[in-house]
């Protein structure tokens, strides 16, 4: 039976490196008809963040990564960890239990990550541990602990880490280091998932490729129906024409506001606006209105300003297409 686990520490929104592990584990389980256990590694109380586990669960849900078992919190398995430590550990002078150089149970009786991880990988019959290469050094010790417990160690697969574009450890300074950062930046979940799937199990460290992620964002938005796109933006489907020009959901929200929340301005371009109203009254569509105005050297910037209150934004033809005729006339009149 193939069984993997994803074992984040509950420190808040998933770090992109952790998300890469999660996707790789899900992919591996699906590929082999196996199971995926979600385990929350909360043995280090000092690092636990209030709501951290919930944030991770919601990030996984957002990415479309389900789990077949769990979530199991290591802190709830304290009794079992302690019992295992007594079976395989030796007391030291301070009252901790050790296995060679490694502390299994601290003097205060709390289990360490090494102990809890080995015991849980053993008890939950994990066949493959897939995680970042920063844990490579733990594999040998964890195998030994599992053998000491009378088990057969899993196969360990370590993937390269996801680094910033400058090759440094990924952090806020790079613009995005967690799933929450990308979500806030308006990158759709499908694009993030596709990017992480594309990376697969990198043998070596990889640099976060924001241009690639942005390209996938454009593709993911293009694949959404008008209804779905509007729903994600929280806008009525009538504004879909302007949303289509956006490269991410944050930009789409901004574009929607141009149509839905015009800013008050006065525009001094009476001839263009008169012509604009005639064309709209004549029933021309957005593209035709823009063409006709261009043909007579009309001041398109002023039309945009009159309709949205902004100097720049989505394509003017899309703005015109997104507004009802009465509203177009009203805005042109009031400017
Ligand atoms: N909890 C560890 C971390 O978040 C992962 C432990 C493991 O996969 O063995 O880095």
What topology does this entry show?
Elements: E1 3-6, H1 16-31, E2 35-40, H2 52-63, E3 69-73, H3 78-88, E4 90-91, E5 97-99, E6 102-105, H4 113-123, E7 128-132, H5 139-148, E8 155-159, E9 162-163, H6 179-184, H7 189-199, E10 206-207, H8 210-223, H9 226-233, H10 240-243, H11 249-260, H12 270-281, H13 286-295, H14 300-308, H15 316-322, H16 325-334
Parallel strand pairs: 1-2, 2-3, 7-8, 9-10
Antiparallel strand pairs: 4-5, 5-6
Helix pairs in contact: 1-7, 3-4, 4-5, 7-8, 12-16, 13-15, 14-16
Bound molecules: glutamic acid (GLU).
Explain what this protein looks like in three dimensions.
The protein folds into 2 domains: 161 residues, HUPs (Rossmann fold); 75 residues, Arc Repressor Mutant, subunit A (Orthogonal Bundle). The strands form 4 sheets. A 3-stranded parallel sheet has the order 1-2-3. Strands 4-5-6 form a 3-stranded antiparallel sheet. Strands 7-8 form a two-stranded parallel ribbon. With 335 residues, it is mainly α. It is 49% helix and 11% strand. The site of glutamic acid (GLU) has 7 residues, from loops.
């Amino acid at each position: 039976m193939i069984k993997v686990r994803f074992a984040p520490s509950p420190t808040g929104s998933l770090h992109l490196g952790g998300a890469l592990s999660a996707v790789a584990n899900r992919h591996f389980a699906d590929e082999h008809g196996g199971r995926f256990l979600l385990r929350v590694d909360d043995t280090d109380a000092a690092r636990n963040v209030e709501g951290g586990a919930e944030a991770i669960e919601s990030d996984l849900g957002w990415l479309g990564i389900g789990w077949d078992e769990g979530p199991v919190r290591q802190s709830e398995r304290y009794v079992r960890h302690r019992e295992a430590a007594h079976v395989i550990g030796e007391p030291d002078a301070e009252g901790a239990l050790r296995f060679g150089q490694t502390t299994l149970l601290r003097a205060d009786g709390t289990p360490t990550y090494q102990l809890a991880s080995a015991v849980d990988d053993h008890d939950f019959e994990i066949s493959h541990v897939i995680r970042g290469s920063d844990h490579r050094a733990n594999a040998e010790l964890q195998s030994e602990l599992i053998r000491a417990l009378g088990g057969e160690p899993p196969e360990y697969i370590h993937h390269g880490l996801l680094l910033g574009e400058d090759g440094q450890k990924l952090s806020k300074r790079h613009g995005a280091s967690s799933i929450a950062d990308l979500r806030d930046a308006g990158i759709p979940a499908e694009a993030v998932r596709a990017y992480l799937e594309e990376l697969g199990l990198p043998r070596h460290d990889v640099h976060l490729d924001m241009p690639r992620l942005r390209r996938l964002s454009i593709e993911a938005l293009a694949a959404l129906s008008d209804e779905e796109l509007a729903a994600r933006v929280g806008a009525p489907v009538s504004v879909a024409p302007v949303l289509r020009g956006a490269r991410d959901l944050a930009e789409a929200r901004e574009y929607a506001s141009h149509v839905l929340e015009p800013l008050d301005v006065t525009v001094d371009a009476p001839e263009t606006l008169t012509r604009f109203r005639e064309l709209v009254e004549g029933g021309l569509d957005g593209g035709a209105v823009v063409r006709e105005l261009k043909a007579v050297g009309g001041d398109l910037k002023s039309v945009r300003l009159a309709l949205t209150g902004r100097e720049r934004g989505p394509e003017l033809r899309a703005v015109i297409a997104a507004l009802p005729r009465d509203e177009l006339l009203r805005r042109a009149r009031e400017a």
